[in-house]
Amino acid sequence: MSGHDRAAYRIAYDRVMAKWPADRTALPVSTPFGEAHVNACGPRDAPPLLLLPGGGGATSASWYAQAAGLARTRRVYAVDLPGAPGLSPAGDRHPRTVADLADWVDAVLDGLGITSADVGGHSYGGWIALHHALRAPARVRRLFLLDPTQCFAGFKTAYLLHALPMLLRPAPRRIRAFLEWETGGAAPDPDWLALQEAAAGFPAAKPVTGPRPAPDALRALRVPVLLLVAANSRTHDPWEVATRAGALLPLAETAVLPDVSHHALPQSASPALVRRLTGFLTAA
Fold this sequence. Notes:
Elements: H1 6-17, E1 25-31, E2 34-41, E3 48-52, H2 64-70, E4 75-79, H3 98-111, E5 117-122, H4 124-135, E6 140-146, H5 157-168, H6 172-182, H7 190-198, H8 215-219, E7 225-230, H9 238-248, E8 252-257, H10 272-281
Parallel strand pairs: 3-4, 3-5, 5-6, 6-7, 7-8
Antiparallel strand pairs: 1-2, 2-4
């Protein structure tokens, strides 16, 4: 779309990235779908952890509240999604299928020199992470999912209706109104909110969508999974998500996070979230 202020967007992006640890470095990684922008921090010899953000204006910057804590035991790699808001520019070829997205994740890992990694994803990033684990389980050591969408339950109708005006005619005020509705008016970090608003009109490609993973495929997954669902999520029924995941995934640990909504994750989550994630990732 024309008219997007790229300079203002970059300023807003960098302002949130300033909240990351001081050792954070940006890594360009070549993939078949364009260059992936990866933000990395933590000891270089620590086990790798790949983080996938939600869709829309989320970006890798949204992990700023967890980056330092996770980097105590992991080399953290947070990537911007291809052709979406962020700093991963759209290539000549854009992912069009679930297989393409799995290939993109493989290419990011290959470009970083990683054979297998722990993987975490929020929302749409959780959907990508789960599909990748189903297609390439040998590359995923442990998987955590933060309120993943379209994995174990569908969207609520009310959520789709509230999101529609923002999707049809993106504007900062519509993004703000939508986030205020979904989070119940919880005050977000102003810099993070400014980045979401700056994403209005971003020249993004159409995201890959598809059905939920097949139940038989989920039952066959032998990767340890931690599923954390937002109790106040208006995106889907959190209890339905937790119940279905617990019934289908053989190596799953599930919990419902109190006092947080879907779009307040991960940046506005309690500090206890890092302790929960670190405990899962470092378990024997």
